[in-house]
Amino acid sequence: MHNHVLKDLKNTVKKFPDKPAFCGENSVLTFTQLDHAIDRIGTFVLCEGIKKSPVVVFMEKSPEEVAAFFGIIRAGSYYVPIDAEMPAVRIHLILENVKSPLLICDDSTFEKASDLGFAGKIVRYSEILSSSEIDEEALTAVYRSSIDTDPLYIVFTSGSTGVPKGVVGCHRAVNDYIDQLSEVLGFSSETVFGNQTPLYLDACFKELFPTIRYGATTWFVPKTLFMQPLKLVQYLNEHEINTVCWVVSALTIISTFGTFKTEVPKYLKTIAFGSEVFPLKHFRMWRQALPEATFTNLYGPTEGTGMCCYYRVDRDFEDGEAIPIGRPFDNTDIILLDDENNEVSRESGEQGEICIRGTSLTLGYMNNPEKTSESFTLNPLQKHWPELIYRTGDIGRYNERGELMFVSRKDFQIKHMGHRIELGEIEVNAQMIEGITGAACVYDKAKGKIVLFYSGDKEEADMKVILKDSLPRYMVPNVTKKLDRIPLTANGKTDRVALSSMI
């Protein structure tokens, strides 16, 4: 039984002592080096008298940052990752929420950390490694007293009020997630990950925890390469990366610019994607370039510990079709609820809110009981005892094959000209137009107008004319605006707040 996320690490070190575990732009940590660093950091945290508390990690993305995360976990506390590029206002809101006694930084972030007004102790990673002796007895005592519902991280997501929400995850949920994800995607000691996502988001769990469990290797792909598609593919080939779990926007950067005509990522065998709908024309380019690779669509919210549903692509799709999100992982259940809290049947094809139940649920939002009770509610279908579910705010339905389909966000569903409209449907049709590289819709409630933002080689007036051939009149955008690029959030999703400000 995996009751602790670091349970397998010592065995992995014995099997692969000198194998690279995490590789960054400026450093590499083997499993032995990683384990020693973790023990030193864990000892330091305990010597500071910190127990079962949040510890902030304010470092550049690197193997050392991962060691800091795991060291805090080994000490029985839970890490709070903060990115140096976050706006100062957001950082202050996070620090005020968690009230951590300790902040770990590196040489590049030390000056900024010192200016944050942090009330606790600030210490550099390098100082910890040079000053701490490992206390095996103390670390062992912590491990023996741990239980699988102990928290291990807090990651912050956007809040509708502008205040970020800290999602608290525990060992049990992460271990269950890695169990299911690893079985679906086939991770092993031969896996070489190419990590794309920031380390302050839960999306990186797909690489971090399987690496230490199986003795895999993770390369942190430099952020700058995602603006240089050919060099990005060359990087993947240089390091023989065979597995990527990327947001869709990272994949489409490669296919948009015709990179496959020059070079293909020849070692890639496992490609998982999520966060956004994969435009079909780009997906086809990827399958054509890598016909032997497996492609898996992943779906899930941060509050459900990463991903909770998957669909391994096993067929072709017609124009206008969307790739299913498939079925839930084992040990997870998905229920669709209508507005009256009744379950929507699979056979009806009707839409309902996607709700999650099972081990994958996180513990809630840090110091925010009101928001926690809004999203983590009692299951209305369970009348005999209290059972929590998480309401995702996503709308889904089952297709004729019994596969779960993502329809849209509840707040993307609008009433326009007397019709209920899914803005996502307009986006899909726009993305199918030849020469269009991105599309996103927002609704101007004040003026009652659908606004389509897009990037590509079509003129604004032409977009309306073309869309009239594929959309009913009431769904054709009232306004079209051409952009050089659709803005994205840090986790690769369309930045609809930024788009709304452009109306």
Keywords:
single chain, 503 residues, alpha/beta, five-stranded mixed beta sheet, five-stranded antiparallel beta sheet, 16 helices, 30% helix
Write up this protein.
By secondary structure, this protein is an alpha/beta fold. The chain has 16 helices and 26 strands. The strands form seven sheets. Strands 11-12-13-14-15 form a five-stranded mixed sheet. The N and C termini lie far apart (53 Å). The model has no long low-confidence stretch (mean pLDDT 92).
Topology:
Layout: H1 9-15, E1 20-23, E2 28-30, H2 31-47, E3 54-58, H3 63-74, E4 78-81, H4 88-98, E5 102-105, H5 110-114, E6 121-124, H6 125-131, H7 136-145, E7 151-157, E8 165-170, H8 171-185, E9 192-195, H9 205-214, E10 217-220, H10 229-238, E11 243-247, H11 248-256, E12 270-274, H12 280-289, E13 294-299, E14 309-312, E15 327-328, E16 332-337, E17 352-358, E18 364-365, H13 369-375, E19 376-378, E20 388-398, E21 404-409, E22 413-416, E23 419-422, H14 423-431, E24 436-444, E25 449-456, H15 460-467, E26 479-482, H16 496-500
Parallel strand pairs: 1-10, 3-4, 3-5, 5-6, 9-10, 11-12, 12-13, 25-26
Antiparallel strand pairs: 1-2, 7-8, 8-18, 13-14, 14-15, 16-17, 17-20, 19-20, 20-21, 22-23, 24-25
Helix pairs in contact: 2-3, 8-9, 11-12
